[in-house]
Design a protein that fits this description.
32% helix; ATP-binding; seven-stranded mixed sheet; alpha/beta; Ac_CoA_lig; single chain; 24% strand; AMP binding; globular; 20 helices; binds adenosine-5'-monophosphate-propyl ester; 635 residues; ATP binding
C-alpha cells in the first residue's frame, strides 16, 4: 500500500493508525517511493524530544532541486511550473516551464558560485514577489547555500537584525517592488540596513521598477548581466539529509526574532506529502497560494510543495485590492486556478466589498479552497464557502506554524467532512495531543487544552539558528518530551480540533505573527516614552489589532497626544515595519505589574477588549489600583 495519498475516510484512519503504530515504516515508505535520492538513509528517525534533538533520514544524500525540477524534465519539461501574475494586470503574465525554470535556476546557481557563495553559507533574499525570488531560493538550494528570505515589507532595522543573526554574506534584492499603486524602494532599505551588517560582501540587484538606485562600488552588482554570461548547466550539490535548507525568522513572545532552521530531507518529504493530501492535488491542477514567499506559507505551498509534485504554481506580485477588489477573482478566472489558498484576513476584507466583485468572474475552475494563518471565524468561513467555493469546493482550514514546516491539522479535501472554524483531524503521521495545566495528556473528546505534538514529524524545525537552548526552552520545556505549539485548542465530540488562539504573548495581526517585545522596544525608543505594553484586541478585518498602553516620561512638557500617536507609529514602522502599527493607544500613568515585575497582560487584554470583568487572580499585583484607573480612562 502507498501511504503518500489518502483516498477515502476509511483509508485516512488506516493510514493514521499505521503512522502511529509504525512511524518509521510509514514515513520510510513515503520517502522511498516518491523522491530521488543519491543514497538512502540509515535510520528513518532518531530523536530525543527532551533535548530537542531530532534527525530524519540520517545518512541519506539528496538535492531538493533535483526533486523539485530535474526529475520532472522528462515527463513535464514543457509544462508550466510557475505562472507569474504581475502587479499591473496590463503587464503580461509569464509562464515559466519546468525546462525554463531548470535553466534559470542553473544560471543563478552558477552566478552564486562565481560570487564565492559556498555550501553552508547564508544568503539573505529580500525581494518582491517576482520569479527571481523563486529562482534565487532554488539556486541556493542547488548549491547547498542556506537561504534566509526576509519578507520585503520589513523595515531596514528588521532586515539588519536578520542579516546579522544569520551572518549572511550576500543579499539578493531589487531596485524596487510594485505593490498596488505604490512602489517600494527596496534597494534603499537594503543600503540602510547594510550600514550595520559587516558580514555582507556582495549585493545582487534585480531590475524590476527601474528606480534609480545607488550602487556601491565593489559590493553591489546588477544581476542580469551576470545571468546572461552564466552557463545553464549546474551540477547540484550533494547534501546530507540533515543539512540546513533554510532559515526563516518568526516572532517570539520575547527578545529577537527566532531563526527557525529547516533541514533538507524531512522538509522536502513533509511539504510534498501535505500538499498532495490536503489539496487533493491532481496532475494539471493550477495551484494558487496568495501568501508572500517571505512567510513559511509561501515557502511550503507556493514553492516547495507544488514543485515537488510537478504542479503549476502561481506567483502573484500584487495585492487583493488593486486595481480594484476583484483582483483575486479575476486572476482565478484568468489562470483557471484549481486550488486557492489564502488567509482569513483577506477573506474578511473582501467580504466587506460589494458581492458583484466576486460574481462578475467565472470561478468554476476551483476545486478546493483553503485558509491559513489564524482562526477563521464562522462568518468568513461561510462567505468563502458560499461565494468563492460556490458550496462545491471543500474549505480546508489548515493549522500549522513556521516551526512545523507544513500543514499539521486540516481536512483532506474531498475526504474529511468539513465543519466551519474547525481544522478537523491531524494528518496521518501527526500525533496531536491536548495537555492540561498539570502537564497531563487529556484523553477523550469534548475537551480543551494546550496543543502539543508528542512524536516528531519530518517537517519540524530542528533548531533556532545559533541558539539551540532557546529552541529547547521555547518548545520542549513546558511539557517535557513533547513539542508545545503555543496554541490552545478544543477537541469536539468526534475528535475534530478547533484552534482557539495563542496562549502566549504572540499576537496574530492580519495573519502575521507579531511578538510584543520588538514592538514595545520600538515604542520605548521614542524620547517621550518611559514604558509601554502592547496587547491584541479583536478586529473585524485583521482578526486582531494592536492596542498600546504607553507611560510618558515626566518632563513637565505638554505634548499633543495625537501627534505623539503618529510619531510612535512611525517609530514602529521604522523598527519593525508598517504591519506592526498600533490601531489604538492609551496613555497611562502605570501598568499592572506582579511583584516580580512582570506586566499582567491578560488584564490589559481584557481592558482593550472592553471587557471589564473576570480579571482573574490579581493578588500577586503590586499596584492593583492601577486597573481601575486604566479602565476608567479607556476610550
Ligand atoms: O496561532 C496559530 C496561527 O498561526 C500561528 C503560526 O503562525 P506562523 O508561524 O506565522 O505561521 C502561519 C502560517 C502557517 C499558529 O501558532 N494559525 C495558523 N493557522 C491557523 C492558525 N490558527 C487557527 N487556525 C488556523 N488554521
Amino acid at each position: 500500500m502507498s501511504y503518500y495519498k489518502v483516498d477515502n475516510l476509511e483509508q485516512y484512519f488506516k493510514h493514521y493508525n499505521k503512522s502511529i503504530r509504525e512511524p518509521r515504516k510509514f514515513w520510510g515508505k513515503i520517502a522511498e517511493e516518491n523522491f530521488t535520492w543519491y543514497q538512502p538513509w540509515d535510520k528513518v528517525v532518531e530523536f530525543d524530544m527532551t533535548e530537542a534533538d531530532v534527525q530524519w533520514f540520517a545518512g541519506a544524500k539528496l538535492n531538493v532541486t533535483k526533486n523539485c525540477i530535474d526529475r520532472h524534465l522528462n515527463k513535464r519539461g514543457e509544462k508550466t511550473a510557475i505562472i507569474f501574475e504581475p502587479n499591473n494586470p496590463d503587464e503580461e503574465a509569464l509562464h515559466i516551464t519546468y525546462n525554463e525554470l531548470h535553466q534559470r535556476v542553473c544560471k543563478m546557481a552558477n552566478v552564486l558560485r562565481e560570487q564565492g557563495v559556498k555550501k553552508g553559507d547564508r544568503v539573505c533574499i529580500y525581494l518582491p514577489m517576482i520569479p527571481e525570488l523563486a529562482v534565487a531560493i532554488l539556486a541556493c538550494a542547488r548549491i547547498g547555500a542556506i537561504h534566509s528570505v526576509v519578507f520585503a515589507g520589513f523595515s531596514s532595522k528588521a532586515l539588519a537584525t536578520r542579516i546579522i543573526d544569520s551572518e549572511s554574506k550576500m543579499v539578493i534584492t531589487s531596485d524596487g517592488g510594485f505593490r498596488g499603486s505604490k512602489t517600494i524602494e527596496l534597494k534603499e532599505i537594503v543600503d540602510e540596513a547594510l550600514q550595520k551588517c559587516p558580514s555582507v560582501s556582495t549585493v545582487l540587484v534585480v531590475k524590476r521598477t527601474n528606480t534609480a538606485v545607488n550602487m556601491k562600488e565593489g559590493r553591489d552588482i546588477w544581476l542580469q548581466p551576470l545571468l546572461d554570461e552564466a552557463s545553464d548547466n549546474s551540477v547540484a550539490e550533494i547534501m546530507d539529509a540533515e543539512d540546513p535548507l533554510f532559515i526563516l525568522y518568526t516572532s517570539g513572545s520575547t527578545g529577537n526574532p527566532k531563526g527557525m532552521v529547516h533541514t533538507t530531507a524531512g522538509y522536502m518529504v513533509f511539504t510534498a506529502y501535505t500538499f498532495k493530501n490536503v489539496f487533493s492535488y491532481e496532475e494539471n491542477d493550477v495551484h494558487w497560494c496568495t501568501a508572500d514567499i517571505g512567510w513559511i506559507t509561501g515557502h511550503s505551498y507556493i514553492l516547495y510543495g507544488p514543485l515537488l509534485n510537478g504542479a503549476t504554481t502561481v506567483i502573484f506580485e500584487g495585492v487583493p485590492s488593486y486595481p480594484d477588489h476583484s483582483r483575486f477573482w479575476q486572476v482565478i478566472e484568468k489562470h483557471k486556478v484549481s486550488q486557492f489558498y489564502t488567509a482569513p484576513t483577506a477573506i474578511r476584507a473582501l467580504a466587506k466589498e460589494k458581492l458583484e466583485y466576486v460574481q462578475k468572474y467565472q470561478l468554476n475552475s476551483l476545486k478546493v479552497i483553503g485558509s491559513v494563518g489564524e482562526p477563521i471565524n464562522e462568518e468568513a468561513w461561510h462567505w468563502f464557502n458560499d461565494h468563492v467555493g460556490n458550496k462545491k469546493c471543500p474549505v480546508v482550514d489548515t493549522w500549522w506554524q513556521t516551526e512545523t514546516g507544513g500543514i499539521m491539522i486540516s481536512p483532506l479535501a474531498f475526504i474529511t467532512p468539513t465543519k466551519p472554524t474547525y481544522a478537523t483531524f491531524p494528518l496521518p503521521g501527526i500525533q496531536a495531543v491536548l495537555m492540561d495545566d498539570k502537564r497531563n495528556e487529556i484523553e477523550g473528546n469534548q475537551v480543551v487544552g494546550s496543543l502539543c505534538i508528542k512524536f516528531p514529524w519530518p517537517g519540524m524545525a530542528r533548531t533556532i539558528w545559533n541558539d539551540h537552548q532557546r529552541y529547547k526552552d521555547t518548545y520542549f520545556s513546558q511539557y517535557p518530551g513533547k513539542y508545545f505549539t503555543g496554541d490552545g485548542a478544543l477537541r469536539d465530540e468526534v475528535g475534530y480540533y478547533r484552534i482557539t488562539g495563542r496562549v502566549d504573548d504572540v499576537i496574530i495581526v492580519s495573519g502575521h505573527n507579531l511578538g510584543t517585545a520588538p514592538i514595545e522596544d520600538a515604542i520605548n525608543e521614542h524620547p517621550a516614552v518611559a514604558e509601554s505594553a502592547v496587547v491584541g484586541f479583536p478586529h473585524d478585518v485583521k482578526g486582531n489589532a494592536l492596542y498600546g498602553y504607553v507611560i510618558l516620561k515626566e518632563t513637565g512638557e505638554i505634548r499633543n497626544k495625537e501627534n505623539l500617536f503618529i510619531e510612535i507609529n512611525q517609530h514602529i514602522t521604522d523598527h519593525v515595519g508598517p504591519i506592526a502599527k498600533l490601531d489604538k493607544i492609551q496613555f497611562v500613568s502605570g501598568l499592572p505589574k506582579t511583584r516580580s515585575g512582570k506586566i499582567m497582560r491578560r488584564i490589559l487584554r481584557k481592558i482593550a477588549e472592553g471587557n471589564f470583568t473576570d480579571y482573574g487572580d490579581t493578588s500577586t499585583l503590586l499596584n492593583p489600583e492601577i486597573i481601575e484607573e486604566i479602565q476608567n480612562e479607556k476610550k
